[in-house]
Specification:
Oligomer: single chain
CATH superfamily of the largest domain: Carbon-nitrogen hydrolase
Strand order of the largest sheet: 5-4-3-2-1-14
Strand content: 15-25%
CATH architecture of the largest domain: 4-Layer Sandwich
Helix content: 25-40%
Largest sheet: 6 strands, mixed
Structural class: alpha/beta
CATH class of the largest domain: Alpha Beta
Number of helices: 15
Number of strands: 18
Length: about 525
């Protein structure tokens, strides 16, 4: 049997556009004499659709699209993912089409993703389907790893999915699929979708594993792809390409997520503040890769405490990237702001008040650029600073989108070095080598209040991704005072994270979704 795998990029709510993509892929599959063509979970609607899944009109439009798609399945069987309204609620279903009509709906039984809970209802679970004399098990989403045993008489497992990317996802997913294919003794075909959906990015990387658990087909990551797999032909096992390492995947995911956030929302141009630091350098490079250098613009906004070397580094980066930039010193605005506020706050000793005024002035200028020119403001935060609250509300927390807000500070250096390897050292070496600093007062360094970020991030990872208690982390060898300090900083800065822009989720536990703490709580006091 020839199975066509259509790995496509869908847009939430663009039912007409998604339908057209599906029909085009069906035509292509027919032209290549495929017997069956597979599409990802909720392909018709796009996902996550959240409250759209509660709208009857939206679901009716999906149903009408399914009927139109089915009319093209005269000589081929298609399995298309879509939300379907039932008497019990909305179900994520694999819709089986052949003979020009819809033959059956196979609903996902287990709703395990937080983004689906409350919006979807569980269906009946996997079912068997015979295509051209071949018995197949059809399973939707996370049901794949929860079913204890499939029908022994079936030859194939067909899994339609919407599996989001996170760091380490590909290897974890392949290990899981290998176990299922080997234990069940069946070939396993997985179809995933690709592309950004606001904060989520789907990596694609669909594929086929044989009954021995060996990978025999692997589709592209972060790109649309179409391939036909002949189950009766001989297939050699393949290895994961060496270049698909963790940092490569983070970079590609960030570029894909940013590109689709802009294109699917009708934006074309991005602006950002270049400080001469690592974070804004990485975000500028990602923006150029995703949107093109002609669509990226930067402001360099030195304050009284900005070293000349930082301006030189930021200028060198902008020129190497080939992006438009302007230098707008904020010292005059800063001094006038302090003068205007003196009757209110007095001649107080320099503290975070004056530091935050600088950051908010920079955001005011960037937002003026956005409002006047249509360049949407990119946020240049990282996960370490977001966790610890080393950011200013209405200052560097602002922006239309944050492509790196779920990337730890130490990982930003890994991404920067990777960018330099593939783009001929576009990031000046001094940016990579200088000690991290917000440059908000004379001689300020992040190390004034924190140990090296390698240590900070190791503690943060254990607290956030692994949900370890402070005692566990201290018992692992970390300094107790540092652990307690980091925990306190995380807990008291939830209010800032509540007001962040959309942050692209690149980890298994991102703030705001996988990790949402009560804003008012006294845990850990």
């Amino acid at each position: 049997m020839k199975i066509a795998l259509a790995q496509l990029n869908y847009t939430i709510g663009d039912i007409e556009g998604n339908c057209a993509k599906i029909v085009d892929a069906i035509r292509k599959a027919k032209s290549e004499q495929a017997d069956l063509v597979l599409f990802a979970e909720q392909a018709v609607s796009g996902t996550p659709a959240f409250d759209l899944l509660r709208k009857t009109t939206f679901l009716e439009l999906c149903e009408e699209a399914l009927e139109r798609i089915a009319s093209h399945c005269d000589t081929i069987t298609a399995i298309v993912g879509s939300p379907v309204l039932t008497a019990d609620g909305t179900v994520s279903a694999a819709v089986v089409m052949e003979g020009g009509r819809i033959r059956k709906y196979i609903g996902k039984k287990r709703i395990t993703a937080r983004r689906e809970m409350g919006f979807l209802t569980g269906g009946n679970g996997f079912e068997c389907l015979t295509v051209r004399g071949h018995k197949c098990v059809v399973v939707v989403g996370d049901d794949l790893r929860h079913e204890a045993e499939f029908d022994h008489s079936a030859e194939l497992i067909l899994s339609i999915n919407a599996r989001k990317y996170f760091k380490g996802a590909m290897l974890a997913r392949l290990e899981q699929l290998r176990d299922i294919a080997f234990v069940e003794g069946k070939d396993l075909v997985l179809i995933n979708q690709v592309g950004g959906s606001t904060e989520i990015v789907y990596d694609g990387t669909s594929g086929v594993l044989n009954k021995h658990g060996e990978l025999t087909l692997m589709m592209k990551s972060f790109e649309e792809d179409f391939q036909v797999y002949d189950t009766e032909a001989a297939h050699a096992s393949i290895e994961i390409p060496k270049q698909m390492h963790r940092t490569y995947m983070v970079y590609e995911a960030a570029c894909c997520g940013l590109r689709d956030f802009f294109h699917k929302n009708g934006y074309t141009k991005a602006c950002l503040g270049l400080s001469g630091g690592i974070d804004s350098a990485v975000v500028a490079c990602i923006a150029v890769e995703a949107l093109g250098r002609e669509n990226v613009r930067a402001l360099l906004m030195p304050s009284p405490f900005t070293p000349a070397s930082s301006v030189e580094d930021a200028t060198a980066l902008a020129e190497r990237l080939g992006i438009a930039y302007d230098v707008v010193p904020i010292s005059p605005i800063y001094e006038r702001a302090l003068e205007a506020m003196r009757p209110v706050i007095g001649d107080i000793e320099f503290d975070f008040t004056q530091e935050n005024i600088q950051t908010r002035i920079r955001t005011m200028l960037l937002m003026a650029l956005q409002n006047k020119t249509g360049y949407m403001l990119l946020n240049s935060s990282n996960k370490s600073e977001n966790a610890l609250g080393l950011c200013t509300l209405y200052g560097d927390t602002a922006g239309a989108f944050s492509p790196t807000g779920d990337v730890y500070k130490s990982e930003m250096y890994d991404v920067a070095r990777y960018i330099n390897r593939i783009h001929d050292n576009v990031i000046p070496e001094n940016i990579l080598n200088k000690e991290p600093s917000s440059e908000l007062h004379a001689g300020q360094k992040d190390s004034d209040i924190l140990p090296p970020y390698e240590v900070v991030d190791a503690i943060l990872y254990r607290m956030i991704e692994e949900s370890q208690h402070r005692e566990e982390i201290i018992n692992a060898g970390f300094d107790s005072q540092v652990v307690e300090k980091i925990h306190a900083m995380i807990m008291r800065n939830e209010k800032k994270r509540y007001q962040f822009p959309p942050v692209l989720r690149l980890s298994a536990c991102a703030f705001g979704h996988e990790r949402l703490m009560p804003l008012t709580n006294k845990y850990g006091d």
